[in-house]
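thought: fold this chain, then report.
action: predict
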Amino acid sequence: MGHFTREPDLGTPGKLLARYLGVLLLPLLLAACQTDDAGGTMSFASASDASQPFPTDYRAEILAFMRTYLNNPVGVREAAIAEPVQRTVGGRVRYVSCLKFADRQTDGTYRDVRERAILFVNGRLDRIIPNPGDECAGAVYAAFPELEKMQR
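observation:
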């Protein structure tokens, strides 16, 4: 007996064309949603350039964030924090706090001290900048014992 192969049913030519156009146009439509009128990347946290409020609970917010950011939040050493100051980040004035710490790796050893910039928008923690440059230049650090005492 012979074996017959059946061609897949792709629908009418109009449906097939609509599928291809949808697949090709979707990335372009999504990319158009990601830029503002000036051609820069859009911030979903805040679109305003209004005066930013000081992040009054910055220490508590950073602790809560670091509990999820670090693989093991227990046993952090050499933790230091700088009070939030206004800096221009991405062309907008934002409050930025800088953080230094050495976290424990899974094998029990410690990494070298790392520096992170914490960006605040509308008085709330927005994101972490892993390799700060100008954001933490001239930062004045003070001990941050709450980070060293963190538990899971």
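thought: worth noting. Residues 58-148 form one domain.
final: tokens above.
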